[in-house]
Inverse folding.
C-alpha cells in the first residue's frame, strides 16, 4: 500500500510542478490578445494645439458596413467655434496597409463649430484611423482620431 | 489523505472539461453570431428602381433573365452563365457568352445587398449591372435599340402594364448603341436626343425588371447557421448542427489566427469592399487592373446613380458620391466574394485562378506579393492540419 501512496505523491509532485510552470508562463507572457489599444478619445487637441476637435457619429452609434455621417466639432482653446474651416479627410487601417473604403467629405456647416462629415464607412472590425487637415482663419492644423470596432 | 484524493479528482475534472463541449469565448460567440444568416436583415428598398419590389416587374424580369432572345444571335441569356441549378454561376474559370470573357461568373445569392457590381465594381446598382452584359460583345452582344424593338414586339403588352406606354418606334433605327460596333455607333450618333432618351428609357426598364427578379435570389441557411444558432442560444446541437472537432478548429481559425473574417465578415461573409490579395493574373487574358480601372467606367455610365434614369432622389447615391477614385490600394483590387456556397462552386477568384479551396487557403497562407500594387495580406503559419480544418469549416457553408 505504501508504494501506491508513494506513486500518488510523486504524481502529485509532478502535477504541482506542471501547474507551477504553466502559472509562470501565463503570468509572465505578454498579453498579446489584449494589446494596449490606440487612444480612442473623441475629443482632443489638434497636433499644434490650434483647435480642440471632437469627432462623433451623428446618430450616436457606429454601424459597420454602412455609410454614416459623423460630426467634427472645432473650437479654439478658449471655446470659440471655428467657422469657415476647409477640411480634408484621409485615413485607413494601419495594420492592413490600406486606406479608407470611401472618401468622406465635409459636406455641411451646422453652426457652433460643427461640420457634417459624410461618407464615413468602416467595412471591417479593427483599428481605423481618420486624419483631418483643417485650415481656418486661425491657421492650419491636423488631428488624428482612432476608431476601433 | 482525503484532501489528496479530492485534489486528484478535481484535477481530473478540470482536464476532462478541456476536451468536452466546443469552447468559445464571449468575443468569439459574438463574431459567430454576426456571421449567422439569422443576422441578415431583409434587403433595403432600392429607391433608384421604383419597380424593384413590383411583382409584375419581377415576373417580366424572370422571363427576360432566361430568354435567349436577349442576345445578338439568340443563343445567350443571363441564365447561360448564371445557371439556376448551379447557384446562378457556371463553374467555368471565365464566363463564356457569345465570346470568351476574362472574368469568373459571380453567383447571385443575396446580390440585392451589394453596393457595387462585377468583380471590380464598375456598376453601382443591380439594374445598371443587368444592362452591361446585354451590350458586351463577349456576353450577350446585342445593342439597346434592338433590345427596345424586341421588347415591343415580344413583350409590349406586359411592358406597358408595368412601365407605361412604350415610345413611338416608327422612325427608330433597328440597331444602334453608343457601345456597339462602328455602324451601330454611327447610327446612335445620328439619332436625336429625344430618340436616344426614349431608347435609353426602355433599356433602363429592362435592367429594372431583371433586377426586380434578382432581388428574390437569397442565400439559404446552412449547417454553419444551425450550429451558430445553437451555440448562441445555448441549445444542444442536434443532427447536422453538430460540428466535428476539425470544423470547430476551422471556425476558430477563420475568426482568429487566419484573419479570414477581417474581410469575409457579416452574414454574407463579405465586407463588400475591394482588396488586392496578390491573386496572380492569368496568362493569355487581357491586362486586368481591377478596381482602379472600374472607377472611370462607373463614373461614365449614363445609368449610374447620378444619371437621368435613376428613380427617387440622389440621397441614394452615397456610394458613388463618396467613392474612392484614385488610390494605390485600388490597383488589382477585386471585390470580396461571399463564401456562402463557395465550397461547391470551384474554381475561385476573379478569373478562376484556383481550382480548389486547398489552393485558395495555400495562397492566403503564403501571401505572395502582387504583380502590381501592394497585397494587403500577410503570410500565415498554418500547419497542414489547420489548413484542412479551414477547408472543413468552409464546407459547412455549403451544406
Amino acid at each position: 500500500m505504501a508504494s501506491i501512496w508513494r506513486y500518488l505523491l510523486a504524481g502529485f509532485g509532478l502535477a504541482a510542478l506542471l501547474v507551477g510552470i504553466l502559472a509562470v508562463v501565463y503570468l509572465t507572457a505578454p498579453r498579446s490578445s489584449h494589446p494596449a489599444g490606440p487612444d480612442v478619445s473623441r475629443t482632443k487637441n489638434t497636433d499644434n494645439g490650434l483647435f480642440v476637435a471632437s469627432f462623433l457619429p451623428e446618430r450616436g452609434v457606429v454601424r459597420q458596413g454602412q455609410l454614416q455621417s459623423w460630426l467634427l466639432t472645432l473650437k479654439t482653446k478658449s471655446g470659440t467655434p471655428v467657422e469657415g474651416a476647409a477640411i480634408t479627410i484621409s485615413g485607413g487601417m494601419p495594420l492592413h496597409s490600406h486606406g479608407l473604403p470611401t472618401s468622406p467629405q465635409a459636406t455641411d456647416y451646422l453652426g457652433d463649430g460643427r461640420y457634417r462629415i459624410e461618407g464615413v464607412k468602416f467595412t471591417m472590425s479593427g483599428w481605423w484611423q481618420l486624419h483631418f487637415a483643417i485650415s481656418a482663419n486661425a491657421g492650419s492644423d491636423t488631428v488624428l482620431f482612432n476608431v476601433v470596432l | 489523505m482525503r484532501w489528496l484524493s479530492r485534489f486528484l479528482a478535481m484535477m481530473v475534472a478540470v482536464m476532462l472539461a478541456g476536451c468536452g463541449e466546443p469552447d468559445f469565448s464571449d468575443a468569439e460567440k459574438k463574431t459567430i453570431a454576426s456571421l449567422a444568416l439569422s443576422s441578415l436583415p431583409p434587403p433595403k428598398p432600392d429607391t433608384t428602381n421604383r419597380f424593384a419590389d413590383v411583382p409584375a416587374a419581377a415576373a417580366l424580369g424572370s422571363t427576360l433573365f432566361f430568354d435567349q432572345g436577349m442576345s445578338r444571335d439568340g443563343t445567350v441569356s443571363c441564365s447561360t452563365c448564371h445557371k439556376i441549378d448551379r447557384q446562378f454561376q457556371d463553374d467555368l474559370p471565365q464566363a463564356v457568352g457569345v465570346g470568351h470573357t476574362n472574368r469568373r461568373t459571380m453567383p447571385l445569392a443575396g446580390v440585392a445587398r451589394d453596393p457595387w457590381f462585377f468583380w471590380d465594381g464598375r456598376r453601382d446598382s443591380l439594374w445598371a449591372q443587368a444592362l452591361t452584359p446585354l451590350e458586351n460583345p463577349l456576353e450577350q452582344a446585342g445593342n439597346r435599340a434592338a433590345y427596345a424593338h424586341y421588347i415591343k414586339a415580344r413583350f409590349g403588352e406586359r411592358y406597358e402594364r408595368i412601365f407605361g406606354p412604350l415610345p413611338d418606334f416608327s422612325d427608330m433605327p433597328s440597331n444602334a448603341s453608343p457601345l456597339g460596333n462602328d455602324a451601330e455607333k454611327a447610327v446612335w450618333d445620328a439619332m436625336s436626343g429625344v430618340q436616344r432618351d426614349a431608347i435609353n428609357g426602355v433599356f433602363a426598364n429592362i435592367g429594372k425588371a431583371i433586377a426586380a427578379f434578382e432581388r428574390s435570389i437569397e442565400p439559404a441557411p446552412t449547417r454553419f447557421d444551425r450550429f451558430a444558432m445553437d451555440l448562441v442560444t445555448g441549445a444542444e446541437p442536434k443532427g447536422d448542427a453538430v460540428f466535428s472537432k476539425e470544423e470547430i478548429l476551422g471556425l476558430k481559425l477563420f475568426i482568429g489566427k487566419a484573419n479570414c473574417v477581417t474581410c469575409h465578415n457579416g452574414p454574407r461573409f463579405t465586407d463588400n469592399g475591394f482588396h488586392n490579395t496578390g491573386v496572380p493574373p492569368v496568362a493569355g487574358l487581357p491586362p486586368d487592373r481591377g478596381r482602379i480601372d472600374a472607377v472611370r467606367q462607373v463614373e461614365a455610365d449614363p445609368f449610374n446613380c447620378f444619371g437621368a434614369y435613376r428613380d427617387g432622389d440622389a440621397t441614394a447615391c452615397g456610394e458613388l458620391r463618396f467613392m474612392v477614385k484614385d488610390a494605390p490600394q485600388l490597383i488589382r483590387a477585386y471585390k470580396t466574394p461571399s463564401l456562402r456556397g463557395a465550397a461547391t462552386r470551384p474554381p475561385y477568384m476573379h478569373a478562376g485562378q484556383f481550382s480548389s479551396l486547398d489552393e485558395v487557403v495555400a495562397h492566403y497562407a503564403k501571401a505572395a506579393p502582387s504583380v502590381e500594387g501592394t497585397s494587403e495580406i500577410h503570410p500565415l503559419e498554418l500547419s497542414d492540419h489547420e489548413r484542412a480544418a479551414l477547408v472543413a469549416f468552409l464546407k459547412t457553408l455549403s451544406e
